[in-house]
Amino acid sequence: MELPAPAAPDGASMDQLADHLADLFVLVKVVELKSFSKAAQASGATKSTVSKQVRRLEEALGAKLLYRTTRHLALTEAGELAYRHGLRIVEQAAALRSAVDSLQEAPRGHLRVTTSVAFGNLHLSALVAQFLARYPDITVALSLSDRYVDVVEEGFDVAIRLTSNPVDSMVARRLAALDYVVCATPAYLAAHARIVMPADLAAHNCMVNGQGLDDTWRFTREDERCEVRVTGRLAVNSSESLRQAVLQGIGVGLLPTYAIDADLRAGDLAIVLPDYRVEGRFGNSVHAIFAPSRFNTPKMRVFIDFLLEKFGAGSGLWSGPGQE
Fold first, then answer.
1. Looking at 104, 125, 145, which one is the last position of a domain?
2. Measured between alpha carbons, how far is 206 from 231 in angstroms, rounded to an integer?
């Protein structure tokens, strides 16, 4: 049965009563031990301090809570209500402490993770499934988006981000190297002018990952460095959409190898200029990005350690011929 809440005195708000929770805890201790002296000893306080706390609580509630004699204590009707409500709060506080302690001891709880659409579909989704099998007390909400996600503002625990320059205010754990290649279908390459040097790309339909229809691609080979201004008929801000366009055989694309791994292995796409290393739009690394405070929980620690284990053992981010 629900207990009625003690009435606050005139002009006393619940916020004011909240300031006396410590006093309420002391009342519970006094009643349980049936002694101000024993309650003071158990709390590490003096008897006079305990007496003052009980008096403060009586003033806040506007009611006498205890009848005190030299030989025993007795609760008033208001004191009985205050004690029973106080006991419930003490029990819930203990339950909260226990729940928080259990989170610190064992990996459990909920994780919110975000990454790009292509990377999530091709790599992270499978890894998350393996992670959940290993840690049955953890749940994961995986959000795939090609827009920039503010991890803190949007309430995510961690973002798996492709970048060379993580945000300074966040913790960044490097998971894997990120490689890129220029590629096209074998049919396209057979039907168009040969591409022997980066400069030859100027004569081709070079589709770009971005908002503009022109871009600069940067190549290195040993000590040789060069830049080529390329143009094309398609610009799209999605690796997966760019991959689909390249597979249609209408032009050349610069793509991360993780997005076209299966296509390269199947022979549906071929690498152009395999002797050159090319810079990509997203940088050269895959990072786990999270706020410093997030790493304190076991669920986050095991998730980051799991990703480091999997990517370190070979995550499928295939580098391709000439890109090792």
1. 104
2. 6
13-17, 94-98, 123-127, 275-279 — which is least confidently predicted?
Answer: 13-17
- pLDDT for 4: 44
Query: Cβ neighbours of residue 107 under 8 Å, at least 6 residues apart?
Result: 135, 137, 138, 298, 299, 301, 302
pTM, two decimals, is 0.60
Q: Which domain holds residue 271?
A: 180-278
Helix 257-266 to helix 239-247 angle, to the nearest 10 degrees?
30
The sheet carrying 180-184 orders its strands as 235-236, 206-209, 252-256, 180-184, 270-272
Report the distance separating Cα 105 and Cα 292, nearest Å: 19
Q: What is the DSSP code string of 78-118?
A: HHHHHHHHHHHHHHHHHHHHHHHHHHHHS--EEEEEEE-HH
- The answer to whether residue 8 is domain-embedded is no
Which tens digits make up the pLDDT trace of 260-303? 989 999 999 999 999 999 988 877 889 999 988 777 788 999 99
> Is residue 243 in a domain?
yes
Sequential DSSP letters for 250-261: SSEEEEEHHHHH
d(CA 287, CA 3): 53
What string of DSSP letters covers 154-205?
Answer: TT-SEEEEE-SS--TTSEEEEEEE--EEEEE-HHHHHHS----SGGGGGGS-
| Domain shared by 142 and 52, yes or no | no
pLDDT of residue 244: 95
pLDDT digits 0-9 by tens, 49-108: 989 998 998 888 889 999 877 677 889 999 899 888 888 888 888 777 766 766 667 789
- Residue with token string 């009707």: 77
